[in-house]
Amino acid sequence: GQATVELALALPLLCLFLLGMVQVAVVGRGQLAVQLAAHEAVRAAAVSAEPEAAATNAAHNAISLRPLSVKVEVDDATITVRVSYTDHTDVSMAGALLPDVTVEASATMALEPP
């Protein structure tokens, strides 16, 4: 009797905690994906005659997260690409308690003439 009551009281909290951990893992996956997109985008932009288009195409081809925001900054000798993505917290129960998270990454590389 008593163990059943304790389990009934603790089980919803345990489920909420586990779903919160899943949500954190989903956001971590998004961060890793955005870092990969930034690296691929800066590599493509560094060797292209049209760095903005090359960076955007490479970032979108590298990962499946949408919508991505890709910003390119070209200096005299370097190029920097910043990629951001808003990860919607949509894991059951736990996602409703957390705000959406924007994950960002940037990568810089030396310009290589095409």
Question: How would you summarize the topology of this molecule?
Answer:
Blueprint: H1 2-46, H2 51-62, E1 69-74, E2 78-87, H3 94-97, E3 101-110
Antiparallel strand pairs: 1-2, 2-3
Helix pairs in contact: 1-2
Task: Tell me roughly what share of residues is in helical segments.
Answer: 40-55%
Q: What is the topology, as strand order, of the major beta sheet?
A: 1-2-3
> What is the overall number of helices?
3
Derived from helix and strand composition plus strand pairing, the structural class reads: alpha+beta
Compute the number of strand runs: 3
Description:
With 114 residues, the protein is α+β, with helices and mostly antiparallel strands. It is 54% helix and 23% strand. The protein is built from 3 helices and 3 strands. A 3-stranded antiparallel β-sheet has the order 1-2-3. α1 (2-46) packs antiparallel against α2 (51-62). It starts with a helix and ends with a strand.
